[in-house]
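Worked problem 6 (solution included).
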Amino acid sequence: MTHPRHVLLGAAVAAPLPVCDHYCGVESRMVKSLALQAELAQEFGTCVFDVTLDCEDGAPVGGEKDHANMVATHVNRHFNAINNIAINGVSRVAVRVHPVDHPAFEQDVAIVVGGAGAALCHLMLPKVESVIDIHRALQLIDAVLPSSVRSEPLPIHALIESPLAVQQVAAIAAHPRVQSLSFGLMDFVSAHGGAIPAAAMGMAMPVPGEDLDQFSHPLVVRAKLEIASACHAHGKVPSHCVVTEFKKPEVVQLAAQRASRLFGFTRMWSIHPDQIRPILAAFAPAESEVALASHIICAAQAADWAPISVSGRLHDRASYRYFWQVLEKAHQTARLHRDDPAQKFFMS
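Solution. The predicted structure is:
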């Protein structure tokens, strides 16, 4: 079978990552989040969100080493457990380490990558200011990686959290080891020394005369667009920032819809388990679009990817590419029915 991804997509197309990246820094929440990942994978038949265990904000000051050891233990334990129950052989657990200029960075990498690198789906690097930070980090990462018995390179995700990083975002996105860029909203706002109001860190419906929120303040909007544009230019995944109003699922889903439909983000952070399903729902394509995409892609494959007519409309490889990406998003959000004929493209 000629796979659509091999026929339709070029090298500069982003890897199909889950649309939700769930963060947790406290051990009890890590355990619950890893269990939830396994539960939803059983429910939906695929891994629908990443779990990122946090060494940066999660570790207590002075307890960084113990925290890193605890994180590495849970990464390996989950990796073994998920393989034992054979959910498509998928274990998507990542770790956010300290920034490259932090005293605990080398220790984090030695413990987490050296001890659990084979079980990681990627490593998140916070506060990346330029591509030089990527190079510095990779020198250490690649030096310790062999001790984890991992043979392939470890993908890198980077957090863009400052005005300087936004200026350098195209070069960062172009680095071949970078798989995704995330926007660090709160640090970005704080980095402006009070020039951006606190309201821009939240999700509110602004009214005339009041402060603008994260979807309307011009500097924040510009940063989001720069990140999304750089990612799409270099075949990387743009990941949207957190929404702190985690007790309001309707606000989370609205923010995710805006991030996806207006700003071009294809992934979003979660900081509470209640945010995961609203994010999945917001990033999922409509059922009617999934059905049309399945019909077109299956018919195109039967025609050896030559032009076809569907309901009186011509389709060729340009539209095939779009509809294939709809199917990928449907698979990532568990919206592709198990008996859909397009499921054959996602069988391992």
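Discussion: The radius of gyration is 20 Å.
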